[in-house]
Design brief:
Blueprint (H helix, E strand, L loop, with lengths): L22 E5 L2 E2 L5 E5 L2 E5 L7 E9 L3 E11 L24 H18 L11 E2 L7 E8 L4 E6 L6 E3 L8 H4 L2 H9 L2 H6 L1 E9 L2 E7 L6 H13 L4 E5 L7 E5 L5 E3 L2 E3 L11 H14 L5 E5 L16 E6 L2 H11 L5 E5 L9 H4 L4 E4 L7 H9 L4 E6 L2 H13 L2 E10 L8 E8 L9
Parallel strand pairs: 4-6, 7-22, 12-13, 17-18, 17-20, 18-19, 20-21
Antiparallel strand pairs: 1-5, 2-3, 3-4, 5-6, 8-9, 8-11, 9-10, 11-12, 13-14, 15-16, 21-23, 22-23
Helix pairs in contact: 1-10, 9-10
């Protein structure tokens, strides 16, 4: 119980409704889904970052709504031993939320995120496999923000719940090749007239086997002299490729290619378009691939939905009778088609599965469906899968809540979650990946309605 509920607590007398700026003394009872500590004050949940269950804190209220409060920590009053943060930017940079948790508590939180989402949907798992954790210095893609003024440029991550850019000099979760590029990238960007005109924007850095693949995201389009300067930046930083886009969601324009990026999946090499989705770590990708390898029988006919570059299905293509990869992004589809050209049992289709999911008649030719949808999940496609004859599904997700919602629909259609593996490739964030196997005892007759 929060001490803020006690009439004897001078920081929050009984009946007092806290306002921004008020200081309270609270006890943290649990961690919320965002990794913030949670207490209860005046009948509303109060969330405090960088705190842990069992701790008592003096906090300052920063935001008030009709349903919840947010506060910043002021002073820790009591609690168990905490972990020493491994990064000096922890607490100001908005990238990590959980470096203060002891290892056992941290791992328990990751698994609890999944269990809580399943419990809300009254779902059971026959076998939960051990958590797979990526090591430090393993993240192969980062998105940095920049803010340019007349005489300086700040490059780093955004502050928590803010657009303010925090200058970053180190990142212990990023691959060393990425972290080593921060300082020279800051210096090179500061020289660009395009960056100064834009004032703000982002830089997406991805480590591919050929080096760094950089996408500059800035509202200002590059003029001819800007393109020359960007090509020089690619040379100065020894980039594999440099691209520009006006917005994150828009297709990027390639400015310079010094070594064409190639991703190897089994026997296939995919030349990814700029900004293509990759799993956050190679270790996380390998854990997902291992689960797919174990759960797809030899000789199966597999449909890979939300396929991306085919990272999860192409490694086992040589032991499949048939493989169909379905992906919304047309550039990614073209890249995969080029990679699998000449493989008669592999097809690739461009399709928005939320707007136009594969229906039961289209799914009838497959034994196994593999899904790796975006955070919003795959509700429309799962509705179609629930009516299809297919008896085995493999579902990878980075969002336990949307996964559990979709899983409820599948379980109601006769599936069971027979195995689930949590994967921690988003180190020190509240996010967690999972991959699960769904099986149905007897196939349904396809329903094309």
């Amino acid at each position: 119980m929060s001490r803020a509920h006690s009439p004897s607590n001078p920081c929050n007398p009984c009946g007092f409704a806290p306002q921004p700026g008020a200081e309270l003394e609270v006890e943290i009872t649990r961690l919320g889904t965002s990794g913030d500590g949670e207490a209860v004050v005046a009948g509303r949940k109060l969330f405090v970052p960088f705190t842990a269950p069992g701790e008592r804190w003096r906090v300052r209220v920063t935001a008030v709504t009709t349903t919840l409060l947010r506060a910043e920590p002021v002073a820790r009053l009591s609690g168990q031993e905490r972990a020493e943060p491994i990064c000096r930017h922890f607490g100001t940079c908005g990238g990590c939320a959980l470096q203060h948790l002891p290892l056992e508590s941290y791992r328990a939180f990751k698994s609890a995120r999944i269990r809580a989402a399943l419990a809300r949907e009254r779902l059971e798992v026959a076998s939960e496999l051990p958590l797979v954790s990526a090591p430090l210095a393993s993240r192969r893609r980062v998105r940095l923000a920049f803010a340019a003024a007349r005489d300086c440029l700040t490059l780093g991550f955004r502050a928590r719940r803010s657009h303010r850019v925090i200058a970053i000099e180190q990142c212990p979760i990023a691959r060393p090749e990425l972290a080593a590029a921060f300082a020279p990238l800051r210096a090179e960007l500061a020289r660009l007239a395009l960056v100064r005109r834009a004032g703000s924007g982002e830089v997406a850095l991805t480590l591919v086997p050929q080096g760094l693949d950089l996408a500059l995201i800035a509202a200002q389009p590059p003029a001819r002299e800007d393109r020359e300067a960007l090509a020089e930046l690619a040379r100065a930083l020894d980039l594999a490729r440099l691209s520009w886009a006006a917005k994150t969601e828009e297709s990027a324009e390639v400015i310079a290619v010094r070594r064409a990026p190639l991703l190897r999946f089994g026997a296939f090499s995919v030349a990814p378009p700029p900004g293509v989705f990759l799993q956050a770590t190679k270790e996380g990708e390998q854990a997902l691939q291992a689960a797919v390898q174990a759960w797809v029988p030899a000789g199966a006919r597999l449909v890979d939905l939300f396929a991306g570059t085919g990272a999860l299905s192409l490694p086992l293509a040589d032991r499949l009778a048939r493989l169909l990869l379905v992906e919304r992004d047309s550039q990614t589809v073209m890249a995969v088609r080029r990679a699998v050209a000449g493989s008669g049992h592999i097809a690739v289709e461009t399709r928005d599965l939320e707007r136009r999911p594969l229906d039961p008649s289209e799914l009838a030719g497959f034994d196994v469906a593999l899904l790796d949808p975006p955070r919003a999940g795959a509700l429309s496609q799962c509705r179609a899968l629930a009516r299809a004859s297919i008896a085995r599904l493999i579902y990878a997700s980075c969002a336990p809540e949307s996964f559990a919602r979709d899983a409820r629909l599948l379980v109601d259609a006769g599936f069971r979650i027979t195995a689930l593996r949590p994967i921690d490739q988003f180190l020190f964030s509240p996010e967690v990946e999972l991959i699960a196997l769904f099986e149905r005892a007897s196939p349904r007759r396809p329903d094309a309605s």
